[in-house]
Amino acid sequence: MKRSESFFGIHFDFHATVESISIGASTTKEMVLDVINRVKPDYVQCDCKGHPGVSSYPTKVGNAAPQIAGDPLLIWREATRENGVALYMHYSGVWDSEALKHHPEWARMDEHGKLSPDITSTLGPYVDELLLPQLKELCDVYHVDGVWVDGECWATQRDYSPQVLQLFHEETGITTVPRQQSDAHYAEFSAFSRELFLRYLRRYVDAIHLHQAGFEVASNWAFSSFMPEPVSVDVDFLSGDFTLQSSINSARIEARCLVHQGKPWDLMAWGFSGDFNNRDFTTKPAVQLQQEAAIVLALGGGFQSYYIQKPDGSINAWEIEIMEQVAAFCRERQHWCHRSKPVPQIALFYSGQGMYRTAESLFHPGQSLDGMKGILQCLLETQQVVDIVMEHQLTGRMDEYPLIIIPEWAYIDPHIHQELLKYAENGCNLLIMGTKTVALFANEIGIELLDAPCKAKHYLAFDSMFGVLNTHFQKVKLSERAIEFASLYASNDNTSPVQPAASISIYGKGRIGAVYCDLGEKYLSANLATMRHFMQGIVQELFPNPLVQVTGSPYVDVTLATNHEHLIVHLVNTSGPHADKHIYTFDEITAIGPLHVKIQAKHAPQCIQYEPSGEQLAFEFKDCQISLSIPRLEIHGALIISGV
């Protein structure tokens, strides 16, 4: 099965080192068949070379581990081929410590002239002298179906090697060398460094496709939230792995960043949690992984879970039972979930250029996405249907979305800025959030900025509730056309000094809402109910008639999609301690409900089916609105609406 057709997979790796002993001694065909026969994955990914750069099979072209017993990769290939299961390799690309022990001249050089012991230069000979020969070996000798290349964009760093600087001078005409963010032309050098990664990626992807048609390649996190730009390399699928903890919140953003990129995609949950620095890991129960899977399935993606192989390359047989339970959960939802298409409602704008200008790493957002992440989480916890859209995904199709939200970006491309204003002028609605962003739209909002933004404690007042905010805020003076929407008080007292927290202004035929404090980054740490009520209120004011409304609990994510010519409302129970860093695993998720659902429709549906149970649900239809209730939601359920 090609990756574009695949839905569920299992990933194994263990990043072999030179200290690994007896690799393959316990790897048997029966072990692999046990996974295949019980879990029934579409594909398996297993280890062949991790970040240490030591291969866990007897490679003839790379750096094999010193103690390999037999050829474990042949066993994996034989068992998977005989059962029609695709086999992909976990292969570390840019990050290869062993290669640099033997060839330090292949290394990336830092701004002080020091060679990296781990990270290769994307302009160096590594790609032609090791990476490509090894991919061809995997293709020709082992006949694997493809590779999931790890340690790629997120591991790539700015390279000050002489050959890189020379090419930078030749291609840009810039003769100075910017070595820190405050230096002139640092942005240009960063953009050039990102372009070098794209050339590196294109070099080996195109070469291996030319060598063997049908060999499929993904570069981990390429063209994702880490790399918010159009897909410009012929990778066969997109993929990434969740954060070790707070995986639900990781899934929420990453799935939404991949779904509009025009490629088959999947996301990988770690089958374990714990303390990464101390390597204190414990296997997650099935219910925890099922909840993580549900976020991805509801957005139409494929899903895989990751288990660590033992130091000798074998697997923990007892974990197969968990794999089975997760696989069964996914399979009973596959028909209605896989490759579904989101229905546009709210667009949360991702300024890729804004991220690239603020993130310290070339492709790792770090804290630069905290504002957007917090606002996304707050929106989802008020049961809004939200897409994340990047510049290239939004331009030319803004009018598909009734509401566009701009979340705490200090930079927006001037062409996008003008298109956003035209969108509002023509009768649509914008919501501008955060101190940095309102400054970009001050004239259009109708405000005067008073002083510079500063961080201080204020109290957000909305709907008879107060909530403390210790975050950045912008003091403003509103014009007559900017109507105050909520207030910020100096203390937890409605007689204390007060200023606008938000406003709504008429702009042409549309409206622009503005929020004068940084709620997103604060919501990640505080998660105040007042923020949710405020967010729900201002969104309802700007977007009063969404296609679907769900009430009954803040712990349900709502996704609206189409698949097989049906309208589908996905409901995911997100309750539980998944965001608590002190809780590694949990084996119970409290059911929520009853949930009350209202769906706008021109005429009554033929039927509404609740999946995966197949139950036919009773509903009312009046004034172009479907109304129904879900008594209880365990983890995930989908309303399949026929004939609307």
Overview of the molecule:
The chain starts with 7 loop residues before the first strand and ends with a strand. The strands form six sheets. It has a nine-stranded mixed sheet with strand order 15-14-16-17-22-21-20-18-19. Strands 7-6-3-2-1-12-9-8 form an eight-stranded parallel sheet. The protein has a six-stranded antiparallel sheet with strand order 13-24-25-31-27-28, with helices on one face. It is built from 18 helices and 31 strands. It is globular and about 75 Å long. The chain folds into three domains: about 325 residues, Glycosidases (TIM Barrel, Alpha-Beta Barrel); about 200 residues, Class I glutamine amidotransferase (GATase) domain (Rossmann fold), CATH 3.40.50.880; about 100 residues, Golgi alpha-mannosidase II (Immunoglobulin-like), CATH 2.60.40.1180. Helices cover about 30% and strands about 30% of the residues. By secondary structure, it is an alpha/beta fold.
